[in-house]
């Protein structure tokens, strides 16, 4: 991999171009690569960089440190949230994920470790996903923060993992392992060497017809969009403006228990 980071990269989100492959590395291993607002913005800019460079044939997403792909959004950023801020946040995340889904070239998510919350949403936007045997997937917000997913993210997860499994994962705050994710069709393979397998897949994709690949991505995206979005602003605003959410964020940061009130 090249050591020269593209201009869109930052210390927390590395962007490398090498031999037709643009690799985005989520680089906060001390925080299990939890996403900051700047990292989300950097991911959107990386997507723009891919589409602006005809030499890029494949995009790869990976997490640094071997413990996580992305373990959600940095919780410290939620401390001053209210309902309208929650709506704006979910809309912005939906916009970033839409950028990722719309990238012209195939996107590979190389998952090694926890793939949680927003990280699961990012992985779901990739075209191909592979993971190490110890990887875990989930959105345990019913147990941790008491927030919610947007309709866009929830719909994408349902399409890839199935309605029953996604509802079960959310309501029981349950993680699934790599084998279950493979059985569900979310993963293409489980491998001991995630980076090597991702490189093999990228090399294969570079040898395939670019317009055929683009057509598959574009038609799948259009089929996915046929159902249209839903108006979920009232739900999101209620959740992010709730006492439960604010107190759960405080308790999570303080490493304290919190008893849900439903308010």
From TrEMBL:
It comes from Brevibacterium casei. SUPFAM superfamilies: ClpP/crotonase (SSF52096). The keyword NAD does not apply. This is Enoyl-CoA hydratase/isomerase family protein. It holds the Pfam family ECH_1. Keywords: Isomerase. GO terms for molecular function: isomerase activity. InterPro entries: ClpP/crotonase-like_dom_sf, Enoyl-CoA_hydra/iso.
